[in-house]
């Protein structure tokens, strides 16, 4: 019975095709012919007659594909490899800092830009990078403000020792000075400083090697909350000049 249904469906399709053809042949030649291509007709559950080849779809007939594999499906947004937010924000922060115009001053008095080393990306263990510059100098060397701004926080911590957090005038960027031996006399939170003003002295406080005094200097873009301890690291090296 199934093969009989298949034959009937084939005969119906042939008759329909012939009818369309005859309509097109007899069409007024002054008017453009419209080709109507029938879709492939399938009788649910019907199987081809024994020995009959599988019917081929007519040119232009719609084809329905089912049971696509995962590889054939369009790539969904959730499958895209995400761009790390910190990296994107860091690039934006660097652009913002560079667009501010004036370069940052080298924060260790008497040190030239050519003497600095870009150790921002040096690994620190397996899970983090340095994200700052270490500027080697004798203990007691003057540390000066890299730009105009205000002293946001004076803080002593186990890793950083005596530290200074300075905000720029726009409160978008923060400058971090660590391992200081001592602060400049009279330095206090909220004080306004100018580029080159004394803020402290190179030391070995915190987790600094006593045999290698240096200034640990970092720059980061502040969050909208303007939290002095939180932000996106930015490499200070390309932002500096003599």
Textual characterization of the structure:
There is one protein chain. With 242 residues, this protein is of the alpha+beta class. The protein has two domains: 1-69, no CATH class; 102-241, Glucose Permease (Domain IIA) (Distorted Sandwich). The protein is 16% helix and 26% strand. It has two helices and 13 strands; from the N terminus they run H-H-E-E-E-E-E-E-E-E-E-E-E-E-E. The chain has helices at residues 2-25, 85-99, and strands at residues 104-105, 123-124, 128-129, 133-136, 142-144, 149-157, 161-167, 173-183, 192-193, 198-202, 214-222, 231-234, 240-241. Strands 4, 5, 6, 7, 8, 9, 10, 11 and 12 form a nine-stranded antiparallel beta sheet that branches. A two-stranded parallel sheet has the order 1-13. A two-stranded antiparallel ribbon has the order 2-3. The longest helix is centred in the N-terminal third of the chain and has 24 residues, at 2-25. The N and C termini lie far apart (94 Å).
Q: Report the uncertain regions.
A: 24-49, 54-91
E-strand count: 13
User: Which structural category do the helix and sheet elements fall into?
Assistant: alpha+beta
- The CATH architecture term of the largest domain is Distorted Sandwich
Shape verdict:
elongated
Question: What would the CATH topology of the largest domain be?
Answer: Glucose Permease (Domain IIA)
What is the CATH homologous superfamily assignment of the largest domain?
A: Glucose Permease (Domain IIA)
Give the count of helical stretches: 2
Average of pLDDT = 72
Share of helical residues = 10-25%
Radius of gyration: 37 Å
CATH class of the largest domain: Mainly Beta
For the largest beta-sheet, the strand count, sense and barrel status come to: 9 strands, antiparallel
What is the count of structural domains? 2
């Amino acid at each position: 019975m199934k093969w009989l249904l298949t034959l009937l469906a084939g005969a119906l399709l042939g008759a329909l095709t012939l009818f369309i053809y005859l309509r097109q042949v007899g069409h007024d030649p002054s008017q453009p012919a419209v080709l109507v291509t029938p879709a492939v007709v399938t009788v649910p559950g019907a199987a081809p007659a024994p020995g009959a080849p599988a019917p081929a779809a007519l040119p232009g007939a719609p084809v329905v594909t089912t049971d696509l594999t995962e590889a054939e499906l369009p790539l969904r947004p959730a499958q895209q490899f995400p761009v790390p937010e910190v990296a994107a924000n860091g690039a934006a922060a660097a652009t913002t800092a560079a667009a501010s115009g004036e370069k940052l001053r080298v924060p260790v008095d008497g040190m030239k830009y050519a003497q600095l080393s870009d150790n921002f990306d040096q690994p620190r263990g397996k899970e983090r990078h340095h994200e700052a510059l270490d500027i080697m100098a004798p203990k007691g060397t003057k540390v000066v403000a890299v730009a105009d701004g205000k002293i946001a926080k004076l803080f002593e911590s186990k890793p950083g020792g005596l530290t200074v957090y300075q905000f720029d005038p726009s409160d978008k960027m923060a400058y971090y000075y660590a391992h200081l031996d001592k602060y400049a006399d009279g330095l206090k939170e909220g004080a306004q400083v100018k580029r080159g003003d004394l803020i402290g002295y190179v030391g070995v406080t915190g987790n600094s090697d006593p045999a290698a005094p240096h200034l640990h200097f970092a720059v980061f873009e502040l969050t909208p909350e303007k939290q002095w301890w939180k932000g996106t690291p930015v490499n200070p090296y390309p932002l500096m000049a003599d």
